[in-house]
Amino acid sequence: MGDPQMVMYEEEFNQIQVVCERLIRDANALVVFIVDKNGQLIAAAGEHEHLDTTSLASLTAGNIAATGGMAKLLKEKEFTTQFHEGEHQNIHIQIVGQRVILVVIFDERSSLGLVRLRVRKANEDLNRIFESLLKKVQDPSTGSPFAEITDDDIDNLFND
Amino acid sequence: MYYGPGLCGKTTNLQYIYTRTSPQAKGKMISLATETERTLFFDFLPLSLGEIRGFKTRFHLYTVPGQVFYDASRKLILKGVDGVVFVADSQIERMEANMESLENLRYNLQEQGYDLDRIPWVIQYNKRDLPSVASVEELRSLLNPTGAVPDFEATATSGGGVFDSLKAVAKLVLTELKRGGK
Ligand SMILES: Nc1nc2c(ncn2[C@@H]2O[C@H](COP(=O)(O)OP(=O)(O)OP(=O)(O)O)[C@@H](O)[C@H]2O)c(=O)[nH]1
Ligand SMILES: [Mg+2]
């Protein structure tokens, strides 16, 4: 398949979470989350309990896919950054390492300039983390975490 | 991923699943549609089907827009697909549209580096309640000539066959995941 299945390990997950938490503080942001290009939420930080992050993740990926499609038509590789300005809240979207999407939601307590600056630093950190994650996933000695699941297990899921 | 020609009932499948699953098992259903309720970009429904050995199984159901001129959007949504329910419209006058859409699926998958014969997929013959429908044998001979693909009759509006199709594809996807299929 196009992309190898993304598997997340605890070590990298914790590192990613730390980057998100720091970005919240440094950028004075409300919510930070990370989504893969297929719309799966990877990590979230900030006041996101009241937010429908699953839906946001799917729409973010759809948005990036649509923008990527436009880029292709213009013979651009991709548009790495997007900014949506609302009356009270704003969304900054950044593609990290051509693989995942970093979303920052902020209000008037921050500014686009500050967010941009802090996202740049977070981008570098995340790039490093995802590269090491990719190496781990591609290492043939790390077996599939799903290998122990039997056909019966799968059948049982549907016997209701 | 629900694929198929315009108006074949993809969105209706998701709506039925949405109304028939418990609130804990589902998230919000999102429909990016035109004012006339044709799918413009996609419908999205997150669903959990329970646990296997401590792994929570979560599925993201998407529909593509069936109308021919939304092909660019369809291609985008196909990226990262794990399994397909091909929804066919059983009405005789939609036979050509069914075949065109199936060819379009095969072609678009190929463009993304997938082979339809090697990914989990099932076929659903929808709208069985209507009077002017082709027989299942006829549909099968056109869309599933080798009979290798699991297929189901359905009436998505009242829900017949909807969960059968979903469970069948979900099972194939999980089996593929377990095999570590690339
Ligand atoms: N009689 C009958 N009507 C159906 C059935 N399934 C869907 N419909 C109707 O067909 C029409 C189109 O259904 P949708 O689910 O919106 O079709 P779609 O495949 O999502 O269409 P696009 O979004 O344009 O690709 C609606 O009016 C449905 O009520 C069925 O099993 N029987
Ligand atoms: Mg639709």
Short description:
The complex is a heterodimer of chains A (160) and B (182). Chain A is of the alpha+beta class.
Describe this structure in words.
Chain A is α+β, with helices and mostly antiparallel strands and 160 residues long. Chain A has one domain (10-157): 2-Layer Sandwich (Beta-Lactamase). Helices cover 46% and strands 19% of the residues of chain A. Chain A has four helices and five strands. Chain A has helices spanning 10-27, 53-73, 112-138, 151-157, and strands spanning 31-36, 41-46, 81-85, 90-96, 100-106. A five-stranded antiparallel β-sheet of chain A has the order 2-1-5-4-3, sandwiched between helices. In chain A, a hairpin with a 4-residue loop joins strand 3 (81-85) and strand 4. In chain A, helix 1 (10-27) packs antiparallel against helix 3. Chain A starts with 9 loop residues before the first helix and ends with a helix. Chain B is of the alpha/beta class. Chain B has a single domain, classed as P-loop containing nucleotide triphosphate hydrolases (Rossmann fold, 3-Layer(aba) Sandwich), CATH 3.40.50.300. Chain B has helices at 10-19, 71-78, 95-111, 136-143, 162-179, and strands at 2-3, 30-33, 39-52, 55-63, 84-89, 121-126, 151-153. The longest helix of chain B is centred in the last third of the chain and has 18 residues, at 162-179. In chain B, 42% of the residues are buried. The mean pLDDT of chain B is 93. Bound molecules: guanosine-5'-triphosphate and magnesium ion. Magnesium ion binds at residues 10-11, 39, 63 of chain B.
Helix-residue proportion of chain B: 25-40%
Number of strand elements of chain B: 7
Biggest beta-sheet profile of chain A: 5 strands, antiparallel
CATH superfamily of chain A, called what? Dynein light chain 2a, cytoplasmic
Q: Any idea what the radius of gyration of chain A is?
A: 17 Å
* β-strand amount of chain A: 15-25%
In this structure, how is the largest beta sheet of chain B organized?
4 strands, parallel
CATH fold-level topology of chain B? Rossmann fold
